[in-house]
Specification:
Elements (H helix, E strand, L loop, with lengths): L1 H10 L6 E6 L2 H10 L3 E2 L9 H12 L4 E2 L4 E2 L10 H4 L3 H6 L1 H9 L9 E6 L2 H28 L1
Antiparallel strand pairs: 1-5, 2-5, 3-4
Helix pairs in contact: 2-6
Length: 152
């Protein structure tokens, strides 16, 4: 996916590029919230102008399921939903992670299968910083693993 983003941005370097993501659960929402600099919906209320793009695309792509008022996609009772033992949200998770708490506030019916449409901007800053972010995470993980082995 990262290489696809690079290819698309290189093809049209001056055209704004966005990723529309529909999120049934908090884990999918965190993909965007933890990796994109500019995204909507944002826990701090940043980037409200991106809500217009969400409305535009959801109205065109999912007009029968999109509720512009609550910014959710509801594909009906027969639509698949997440199993609570796989993607449940606990009180501890809400307390420890404001993004998870925010996701549940935005999509209180996630366990029924409603989806939260999200959008993130793919810009040069994101494409340059992402590999370094992955590298730093990998270094921290490796250091933690080395420390765990040393303690054994």
């Amino acid at each position: 996916f990262f290489f696809r983003m690079i290819r698309e941005k290189l093809r049209h370097p001056f055209r704004p590029l966005f990723w529309l993501l529909i999120s049934k659960g908090y884990k999918t929402y965190l993909l965007m919230a933890n990796n994109f600099h500019t995204y909507y919906p944002h826990p701090d209320g940043k980037n409200p102008e991106l809500a217009l793009l969400v409305d535009y695309y959801c109205d065109r792509l999912f007009s029968d399921a999109y509720c512009e008022e609550n910014k959710l996609l509801d594909f009906g009772e027969g639509y698949t939903h997440l199993k609570s033992n796989v993607a449940g949200i606990t009180a501890e998770m809400r307390q420890k992670n404001e993004k998870i708490q925010f996701f549940e506030t935005c999509n209180p019916t996630w366990n029924r299968g409603t989806e939260l449409p999200c959008i993130g901007e793919i810009n040069l800053s994101l494409l340059v910083s992402y590999p370094f972010s992955l590298w730093r995470k990998q270094r921290r993980k490796t250091k933690t693993q080395i420390a765990a082995v040393a303690c054994e």
